[in-house]
Write a structure and sequence with these properties.
Number of strands: 2
Structural class: mainly alpha
Radius of gyration: 18 Å
Number of domains: 1
Strand content: under 5%
Shape: globular
């Protein structure tokens, strides 16, 4: 398969993997930097292995989330879920990277209770550019790409499940 064709036609599994890969890399750069500079990481090869294990865990969580959405958004409607996740990943990534925000249960409750005035204070050009480049631009690719149907329903279900299981095993072995 040529590179040009790969960028224009993907299977559901490939779309899910690319979406999870993108979310686990650039929008999560603050998390990856924290893994790399953690005192637990050590030095040299151990630090690289620790950072890789941390990234693999973030990738596993991202793929699990995309897989959960794929169970709800069946068929070609998966593209809408992937576009939403890319924009949300970029948004959360901005607040983690520039403001050092950690998203936990308390933070989500705080977000729900935020009023419109406080929200408008956070919107700026840097936020909009960050979301445009790291969320909307990859979302545009998702919109343009053709999703090739799987040859069977079992393949469309078993391939993501097997990939998820493989990620659990590899992540568990490394971490």
């Amino acid at each position: 398969m040529s590179v040009r064709k790969w960028f224009s036609e993907v299977t559901r599994l490939q779309l899910m993997l690319v979406t999870a890969l993108w979310i686990s890399l650039l929008p999560n750069i603050a998390t990856l930097r924290a893994f790399a500079t953690s005192p637990s990481a050590g030095d040299g090869l151990l630090a690289a292995a620790f950072a890789f294990g941390g990234w693999l865990f973030v990738f596993f969580i991202s793929f699990w989330l995309v897989t959960a959405f794929a169970c709800v958004f069946w068929g070609r409607s998966l593209r809408y879920a992937c576009m939403l996740l890319l924009v949300l990943g970029a948004t959360f990534g901005y607040f983690s990277f520039f403001l050092g925000t950690l998203f936990d249960k308390t933070m989500f409750m705080n977000m729900i209770q935020t009023d419109a005035h406080e929200t408008l204070e956070l919107i700026n050009l840097r936020l909009l550019l960050w979301i445009a480049v790291l969320g909307v631009l990859p979302g545009w690719w998702v919109w343009r790409v053709t999703i090739v149907p799987a040859h069977s329903v079992w393949r469309s279900v078993l391939a993501p499940a097997a990939t998820l299981l493989g990620l659990v095993i590899v992540t568990g072995a490394i971490v």
